[in-house]
Amino acid sequence: MANTRIAVIGAGLMGHGIAQVFALAGHDVTIYDQAASSLDTAKARILTNLKDLGEDEGAAQRVTPVADLARAVRDADYVIEAVLEDLPLKQKLFSEIEKCVRPDTILASNTSVIPITSIMEGLKYRERALGTHWWNPPYLVPLVEVIETKWTSPQVVDFTIKLHADAGKQPAHVKKDVPGFIGNRLQHALWREAIALVENGICDAETVDKVIKSAFGRRLAVLGPLENADMVGTDLTLAIHKTVLPDIDNRPGPSPYLEKLVREKKLGFKTGEGFRKWSPEQQAALRSDVLQHLKNARAHDA
Ligand SMILES: NC(=O)c1ccc[n+]([C@@H]2O[C@H](COP(=O)([O-])OP(=O)(O)OC[C@H]3O[C@@H](n4cnc5c(N)ncnc54)[C@H](O)[C@@H]3O)[C@@H](O)[C@H]2O)c1
After folding, report:
1. Which of the listed residues 84, 136, 141 should we mutate to test ligand 1's pocket, taking the one with most ligand atoms within 8 A of CB?
2. pLDDT tens string 190-231
3. Candidates 184, 188, 255, 273; catalytic one
4. 217/211 Cα distance (integer angstroms)
5. Residue closest to 21 by CA, chosen among 67, 65, 53, 69
6. For 107-118, how does the pLDDT look when each residue is reduced to its tens digit (9 = 90+)?
7. Strands 129-134 and 143-147, how do they pair?
8. How far apart are CA 95 and CA 77, in angstroms?
9. H or E segment and range at residue 79
10. What is the pTM of this model?
11. Inter-residue contact 18 to 80 (CB < 8 Å)
C-alpha cells in the first residue's frame, strides 16, 4: 500500500509498538503523547525493539515524535488513538482531533473493551471512525480486530483491513460493535470460569493455569474451539453442553472472589500477590517466557 501518513496518539506500551509496525511497513508516522517521559523515549524504545527482533533499524527514522496534538495529526490520513482506557478522555481527544484533520481522515481507537460507538458518537463525520484492537506486544501478536459501528462506511473498513494486512497483521472484521469485541469476550468468558473454579474450591489458581497450559492451551494456536467442535462432532459438543453448561458460572457481574482480592490490595504482580504470590524473579521469568514464546511463534510463521 502507498505511503499512508499515520498519526499515533499515545506513546505508551501499545502506541510505540503500533508506530513501529506502521513505520516498518514503510509509512511515515507521527507520534504524540502529553507526557514527555513517554514521547521522548518512544523512538529509542522502537529502535531497541527493532534491534532485538533483527528488523530494519532504519524504520525508526520514519517515526517523528511531535509534542503538539494539532501538529501531530494535521497532515494525517489515518489517526490511531492508544491513550489510557478512559471513555471521557478518549471522547475529548477525538473531538479535539476532529477539529484539526480533513473530514475523510480515518479515526481509529485501540480501546480494549469500550464500545467504539460510545467513543465516536460525538463526532461530526462518524462514517470515518472505527476501532482497531491490537494485542500486546503489537509487533509480535498478529491479530488486529477491526470493529465497525453502525455509521462506519464500508470503504473505511476495507481500507483499514488492507492497511493492516499489508503491514503484516492479521485483521479480523468485527461486524457489530459489542463490548470486548471478539477476543476479549472469549478471553474473559474463560477467565470467569477460571476464577469460579478457584472460588468454589475445585482447585487452586496454579492448577487452573496448569490444566489450560498443558491441555487445550497446547492446541489452541492451531485448533480453534469451533474447528475443535467440528473435529469431535457437533453432536458430541451438544451432549457435553447439556451436562456442563448448567453448572458453569453465569453470574452477570464480576466474581466476589475477585472483588475481595482487589479490596485486599492483592493486585497481582504490582503488589506481589494476586491469585498467587509472585516474587520479582518469578514475575521476570514469566514475562520472559511469554516474550520468548511469542518470538518463537513469529519465527515459525515467517
Ligand atoms: N496493554 C495492553 O495489553 C493493551 C492491549 C490492547 C489494547 N490496549 C489499549 O490501548 C490503550 C493504551 O494502553 P497502553 O497499555 O499502551 O497504556 P499505557 O499506559 O502504556 O500508555 C498510555 C499513554 O497515553 C498517554 N496519555 C494519557 N493521556 C493522554 C492525552 N490526553 N493525550 C496524549 N496521550 C495521553 C500516557 O502518557 C501514556 O503514555 C488503552 O485503551 C488500552 O486499553 C492495551
Report:
1. 84
2. 999 999 999 999 999 999 999 999 999 999 999 999 999 999
3. 184
4. 8
5. 53
6. 999 999 999 999
7. antiparallel
8. 17
9. strand 78-81
10. 0.96
11. yes
